Amino acid sequence: MTELQLWLERLERLHPTEIELGLTRVATVASTLGVERPAPRVITVAGTNGKGSCVATLEALLLAGGHSTGAYSSPHLLRFNERVRIGGREVSDADLVAAFEAVEAARGDTSLTYFEFTTLAALWLFRRAGVEYALLEVGLGGRLDAVNLVDADLAVITSVAVDHEAWLGNDREVIGREKAGILRPGAPFVCADPEPPLSVVSAAGSMGAEAYFIGSEFALDGDRYRFGATEITLPATTALPRPSIAAALTALLVLDALPGSGVEEVLAGLQLPGRCQRLDWRGRELLLDVGHNPAAAAYLARWLADHPVAGRTRALVAAMADKDLAGLFAPLAEVVDEWCPALLPGNARAAGCEALVAALAAAGVTAERVAADCPAVAGALDRLVADTGSADRLLVFGSFFTVAEVLQHVRDDIDGES
Mur ligase C-terminal domain spans which residues (predicted)? Predict the structure, then answer.
């Protein structure tokens, strides 16, 4: 086991609960570390869906414009290092260990959650590297998330939908209020939700924020983006959500940081693992998506409808039991031909076979379109690939854990052949 792996195992045991929202403890340690201001410019991104895509777009465009960046996002798929990037590259194990040691020395007797500890480590690395821009993705909610200890020069909310109900509630107004907690008085704010909750609009007004709402201050008509005199065609080659890209473009235009040329070329190459990610394996096309709530499934359904295949669309799905499973499956009921519910052994949160099958039925999927058994994800993938024609498409979705399992299985298979 590497030193980094030992650290990560320790961090998982460091605090009695996985999540403890609140800024008092983490802000105290941040002050000791001197990371309250990790970069001259900070952009914080919150949202139910699309925030990772927005951060990736901001990062790519800023790098293309010659700026130095630090990007922090979560969760990761295969390696923790994915969460922290400097200059577009994952930081090394040694960098992370050094950051963890710095946080450990600074925290004293203060107890920190895994996310709080690792957030402070990322901020420490950004400050040490001297990046111009820190791009921070909120982990959960906004107002009480550890990322919010940093005052953002510009805040983005990509979308507001229902997810993580145990922590954020099941009401968009309440959820919007939590996400609007990342706004700062008088600072610019970009919202890419076409129907923002009143709580978000009110928060922007009461704080005197310089607000930019999609459909008002900037527009997105299909692939056509417009903000003032700027018009950009979003390339069809990227599968990232258009509203998230539009939010990133608006943010950089507001900050006068959008490159003067080559923007469409940068956008054409945008991709993010697990976001409508196409992967060729064993002569078959896999489509991997981490979508795990009804709003994400609705976007995925539209994407599938806009990109038809000659054959069948078959879905391998494994999801967490605490999610709205029927709501997750319903948007895809008409665009997926066959379903294979699968299990994630060893994951205590994962839904079992009975729950998955019942949710598919509740979503309107007829029994003859659902596989008779529920194998583990890796076994289900092998079976489906062997039985999938070259004109078919194999969709994998339902959670980050599901996509991670498939990516690891594919990697192990490729490594075994080399």
Answer: 274-400
